[in-house]
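lol ok so funny story. i was supposed to be doing the assay writeup but got distracted and ended up predicting the structure for this chain instead. priorities right. anyway since i did it might as well share w the group, maybe its usefull for someone
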Amino acid sequence: MKKATSPATIIMPVESQVRELDAKLLLSCLLAERGFPVVIGSRAFIHFLVEKLPRGVYMAKSMRKLSIRMFTILRQLGHEIVAWDEEGLVRWPDEEYYRWRLSPVTLELTNHLLAWGEDDARVLRDYPGFPGTPMHITGNPRIDLLRPELRDFYRERADRLVEKYGDFVLINTNFSKVNHFFSHLSELKEPAARLAAGGVETFDAGKGRLKQQLFEHFLQMLPELCRAVPGHTVVVRPHPAENHGPWLEIARGCPNLKVVNEGSVTPWLMAARLLIANGCTTMIESAVLGTPTIAYQPVLDPRYDDDLPNLVSHRAFTQDDLLSQAEAVMAGSLGVLSEADRRRVLDRHLAALDGPLAGERIVGVLEEAGYLAGPPAPAPAASFIRGLLHNKARTLSKKINMRRPGHRNNLKYHAHRFPGVTVADLQAGMARFGTLLGRDFAGLKVKQLQEHIFRIEP
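and the output, tada:
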């Protein structure tokens, strides 16, 4: 009798735990429910182990030139790649987005592409190096968590935040390119000097100047905002890659200012009375949830401004304007933009705001591609050996860099982005998802393979 073939293993890497883990855990549950085994955990640690994993499908979160080496190793080992761009929703003008986020080599190595919505799919198809990779408009599992049927996943955490902070203002920052956790990794910091030396593109210099100016305006605005809402807490939630130091320095002089970056942003958005931000995906998430949002734009430049978040937010162009709008929201006289206005903007950019979940659509793509019937074909022996040796050399280099102070692979920085999770944490999250969706996710098995890496299976 012919032996039955097991489904392909789905490899689910997580780079930023607070931003990605919950959504990818939900997707993992939906996959395991259909019969797929899933390996989920720290992206860095999964890469170290990838030659030992069963042949399967690697779910990539970006297609940058920086990924060429890892994508090549994956294909040499016999894995296939399904990719979306985690930064593909709020992005720079097309030509600059292409330069920063896409590579014809990574796209050639990718078997299927997943898009946030129609606009994201359009941008990917228009890329001059697009090789005709099969494209699927599925939406993103991060948005699934904002839908009414799943919001209660965070309800208890949101309620605890309200108990702790009361009616608070949330400031979400995205200044890692000028205020990185390791300052020398701030990609757009002091771009004018590097432009003069020929070390940076003209667009990057302009974007860097704008980011630096906005960063300084946010720093200057915070004490005034704290004084304008004296009966309320102001919470600054820095980007996962940011240095908290400048924000903590201001908090020392403002009793009602807290600097916190713990857990997913979703319960914070649910608990906050008001979000203030500039040009970040969190503003889109806030619009889906229906939390009042102000886009603070004290510096304007149409070449670099991010239009999508602004279109679903109130806009403040001066500090006085921001303070008056913030006071109005906290007093209850200014609310969220109407749902019709928000959906008019969002529907072109976000699939799966209703109907089947984005995660369910992704499961469907993998089934239709044949991965439930079995894993990809094995790589030729010579290719596998090349991939094995290539990854061992890469792993050795990365582990050495983890010990180097200030390196982007440094263990301290890894712990900042992926502070750790336990089997019990994953089981609790899976059980909550199952209850909300009326599915038996609690019956799925979870096993820790090694530090920061877990296997979820039927």
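The chain has a mean pLDDT of 91. The chain has 20 helices and 14 strands.
back to the writeup now i swear
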